[in-house]
Amino acid sequence: MNFSGLIQDFGPLTITGLAQGAIIALFALGYTLVYGVLRLINFAHSEVFLLGSYACLIVWGFFGLDQNSATPSTLSVIGLLLLGLVAAIVISGITALGVELVAYRPLRKRNAPPLAFLITAIGASLFISETVGVMTQRNIKGVPPLIQPRDVFVIGNMHVTNLQILIIVLALMSMFLLDRFINRSRLGRGIRAVAQNPDSAALMGVNKGRVISLVFLLGGLMAGIAAVMYDLKIGVTRFDAGFLLGIEAFTAAVLGGIGNLRGALLGGLLLGLLQNYAASLFGTEWLHAASFVLLVLILLVRPTGLLGESLGRARA
Amino acid sequence: MRQVLARAIGGLAVIGLIAGAAACNSDSGSDDTASGNCGYKLAFFGALTGSSANLGVNIEQGFELAINQYNEKKGSTCIEVAKFDSQGEPGVAPGVARNLVADKKILGIVGPPFSGESEAADPIFEAAGIPTVTPSATRVSLSANGWKTFHRAVANDDAQGPAAGNYIKNVMKAEKVFVANDQSAYGAGLSEVVEKTLGSAVVAKDKTEADGKQTDFSALVQKVVSSQATVLFYGGYYQNAGLIRKALTTAGWKGTLVGGDGMKDPGLAKAAGNAAAVGTITTCPCSPPEKAGGTFVTDYKAKWNVDAGTYSDVAFDAANMFLQGIDAGNTTPEKLNTYLSTVEYKGIANTYKFTDKGELDPNYIKVWTFKFDATGNTIADQEVPTA
Amino acid sequence: MSEPHIETPAEADAANARPFDRPAPEGTGTGATAPAAPGEDVLLEVDNVTLRFGGVVALNEVSFSLRKGEIFGLIGPNGAGKTTCFNAMTGVYRPTSGGIRFQGQSIVGKKKHEITRGGIARTFQNVRLFPEMTALENVMVGADAHHKTSVIAALFRLPRHHREERTGRDRSYQLLRFVGIEHRAGDVARNLSYGEQRRLEIARALATNPTLLCLDEPAAGFNPAEKADLLALIRKIRDSGVTVLLIEHDMRLVMGVTDRIVVLEFGKKIAEGTPAEVRDNPAVIAAYLGVPTDAA
Amino acid sequence: MTTEATSSPAPQTPVPGAVSAREKKNRRQDSGGVRGWFGRQNPWVRAGLMVLFAVLAFLLPYVGEIPLIGPQIVTQGIDWPSALFNMSYYVLLALGLNVVVGFAGLLDLGYVGFFAVGAYTVALLSSPDSVLRTEWGWTAAVPIGLAVAMLSGLVLGYPTLRLRGDYLAIVTLGFAEIIRIVATSTETLRGDRGFSDIPHPPGEFADGKPIFGVADAVPYYWLGLAVIILVILGVRNLDNSRVGRSWLAIREDQEAAEIMGVRTIKYKLWAFAIGAFIGGLGGVMFAGQQGFMNSQTFVLQFSILVLAGVVMGGSGNIAGAILGGALISYIPDRLRGIQDPIWHTDLFGFRFAIFGAVIIVIMIFRPQGLIPSRRRAMELKDREKEVAPIE
After folding, report:
1. CB distance A247–D353 less than 8 Å?
2. CA–CA separation, D69 vs D47, rounded Å?
3. In this predicted model, what pLDDT tens digit does every residue of C237-291 receive, in sequence order?
4. GO:BP terms for this protein (chain A) (predicted)?
5. Are residues B123 and B73 in the same domain?
6. Span B124-140, pLDDT tens digits
7. Same domain, B61 and B127
8. In this complex, is the C-beta atom of B140 within 8 Å of any C-beta atom belonging to chain D?
9. Nearest-Cα residue of chain D relative to residue A118
10. Chain A residue with minimal CA distance to D177?
11. Is residue B235 part of a domain?
12. pLDDT digits (tens, 9 = 90+) for C171-196
């Protein structure tokens, strides 16, 4: 164990961990939203993210940008970022709705047992990621360097770059807007109603089918934003990127209390930080093991996650 | 009762559907008589799908290119290409290997690319007596099993490691080196030898997960930066290496990334971006293809529309070595195996001659270093001593 | 390899000694006979039990005791703490303070399945059967409570497995007949009618060989004819030697069948006595005044 | 087969309150569970059918010899007996997972962990690469492997039993990942370098050649099949006993079960232990056939695939689990070396994508699984039919 290393690098590990955690948290929202309403682990959510991560690359490709392009001017960077975000959000949203339509809705109509949903989700995930794998020949795809990382400020050996700030701010902003939407808007009330009690919500005139679609869509939107940020941060995407990060995001969602929006944020950030610290302390190969150990320990003490579940009580 | 039947039929129908879709199979054994040493097959055995498919595909394409060129020269489909997908997994390999040996037209095998699947599949090839030439399985112990059909067309980790270490020490004159690996049999083996060669110059170490299992290397990068090392040696493959190189550049690290032949692939530059990849050094127990004067590099690009990757050239050589043997009338696996034990074949990446254990003759082991240039390609740098 | 078995030989003997053709006759209760408690025939003693959930006091120093062989009523308006009291007795909740003794031994803090094996069985206010199991299997789960077949014995079909399966099955059929739904033995519980499900629940509880059977509003949702049948069944159960504790809303039903009654209101005991005594108790009248009961 | 036997008890008009002779006969035979067509047959017919199935299963390696149908069944890109062996350990895993998920209702997403524990224990005890240097034979290592797997089931089960459904799922997933990472990253377990020269099961033919060699997978398949049959018998016995009833009761309503005297913790632990035992059995078989193994095999996708198999086949049903387990191995293998009929491109690389689509289709059209558990099927049946008197 390398304590001195951890202490020496604590600052930089914290900021990179927060950036990674912010991405995980946004990704985790999709799991949490769907779980909150349907009590369903949406395994295919990882592929919602995956397609988003390709969508923005394709759009940037239209403008002739690849990993070797020079960084464009600031104005066009803003334009490109927005376009990429829109593309990723749209594709991720469509994918999420598509998965709901093809894999879940028919089962709901047939009143299938809960496990059946899990398995169609696995089938959908396999189908999408493998199709992408074949189409890309399982190769990596590089991301254009839209944002050249530059130090915005430095504290000790902690260099905080513009990209990290962008990721964290964008993630927090998206979360804040989502939280407001769920807690304040009429549609959000519908979501909370269905999450708390589907039967009485239906009696009160809430259209359950619409709420479910909405929840998938919202999860897709968040995954789209996460995907763009992931591309910018990691610089590469690949057919199994979704699966890999999906497991982490799901872990984060459970850690914070699945079905709880703020839990997802907390879980994501915590996981990002912990992975970095653990990698520094024990070696990078233990990074994922550390997150699972933390999960198990926390669930043993708090069986429903740090903040408890229930989308209905998202404010709690 | 009727309901039960209906249900059973429903279930069967689904299965039937699958079987029906699968009914049309590709195995239409052509029965043209073997004339002019034709009508045989050479097999590629390795990963074509799965998470490590990219390396397998590199090799398969080099292999297939050689056979296509041969057939074009002959004007007919003289030697058929047979592909066997092991997914690179030791768990899958034996079944696929047994299927391979059932095809009596197969005279020789290029593969398996990875050491793990070699351990699982080579005993089956050995039992069937079909010669194998692996272009990339570099685990030292593979040749110690007493397999007569095993041939390795590259230097094993024991040769490449010291060369990489020597280069870092003597040519780059680095005093602080960070050594990391991806825990693959290849990467871990290589980095251990490098570590030994470098001795006290190693300031810190780390391990990562394998390709496709990790994408965020922030912690590793931070360690490298903090260690003030000027060289990072990474034992692993090009995908992770590319991601690490990119993250290192982002973090403002000015040192050089050095790796083994697993990193000698344009994919590294694709992941990192050419600007970041420039100057990255890879060692390779092979000679630069342009030295061979052939048109391999352009042919490959023309055929597959991608740049030749790691080991594509060695696979190309291995296939040609087999083809030369078949041309000379060695049309049984046994004869071809005997041929391999005596041949001295000059290919584009190297000259090949095998010891009785199937290792490359020490006299022909060459290790070169290559450097990534600004276009993302690897350019031969210099030959380095292996001891 | 042997599974961790906590059952005592005494318990097993008691179980085996019980004839399976009808529920236990009075006197051969499970476990050791109760040491002489205040009043020899006291079966269950609830002693100053208080139960708090956070700041809410659900039960406030409630005391009463049940005698062997009686039908005892526990009544009170909605939210009076009847079911809470019930749950405390069957191990679902642990009292904040006070004691509960069954046959002279404290059962506070005991595991639910231990309490059941000790001789207290119950039904649920909202029927809680195992919906995908057949009626027979539901009852057999109850009968298994006193079986000793280990996992290993079941795995290799050892003689004990066969013996206990047979006796358990026979007894389950008898209990199904006892409650009048033998013809539904092979149907999954989900598909039984509501009345049948209620009866099945009683059969399942009886299968655990209880000394005390606690029924939580067994007549809820019944029409008068069904209620009459139920009354007959409850008497039949008592006559077979099982003490019955009845939680009920329906005053008429309670008055008609019980020997003694305790009335709860707001978690406190407000009256105790025979039906006639309770009926005339001013506190009870006040508590029920304006509170519509099912009987009304 | 024996028509005489099936029709032996003369049908009697049920007298209200009394029990028909037929019913009494049934009472002696069954455990009171829901009986399907198979369960209603005379025991001799059942036994005969089972033997017939077993014999057919043992003949499967030669199915390719049947004209017309045979070649459609056998796999192209992978040796057929090897594919059968692969199916056999997938079936074992599905049977084991079915105990945990199907019977006891505990969602386990990390089942491959037990498979790994079984395989690694054998490798550690028998491979010359192991630090233990014991180099035992396969047969000697197997009991230890199974015991350790079972123990690992208890170790995982005990602390996690408090967790509810989906939380249990993620924790088991985490445990399996931890096992994989530990296997990859510790020196003792040799990570990607793996263990070579793990001995095969013992036995020789008359001519001195080993029965369990490297070239022929048929003996391994037969061994696997024999093990499967034993496991089926054992699991069926458990299912038809108080153990099975307790599991079901726990799955249906844990608290009610406990109040009815079921020791929930004990039976959940047993479910984990038995599941782990069967998983370990798959692992030791795998190690014995493979001769070499490393950490690559035990990836998360493996667990998920086996779970998909169990649910696809029919969770809670032994026949369903067998079918599902066989299919998850068979479908991808069968899609090797196939061209699509329209464009004649190789379907090869698409086989997992196709597999994913097949999973979705199966689940949509048969949400209860291909061979649903009788209970689940009955749930959906019209109630009217149930009201009719039995027989």
Report:
1. no
2. 27
3. 999 999 999 998 777 788 888 999 999 888 889 889 999 888 888 888 887 765 5
4. D-alanine transmembrane transport; L-alanine transport; L-isoleucine import across plasma membrane
5. yes
6. 999 999 999 999 888 88
7. yes
8. no
9. D308
10. A289
11. yes
12. 999 999 999 999 998 888 988 999 99
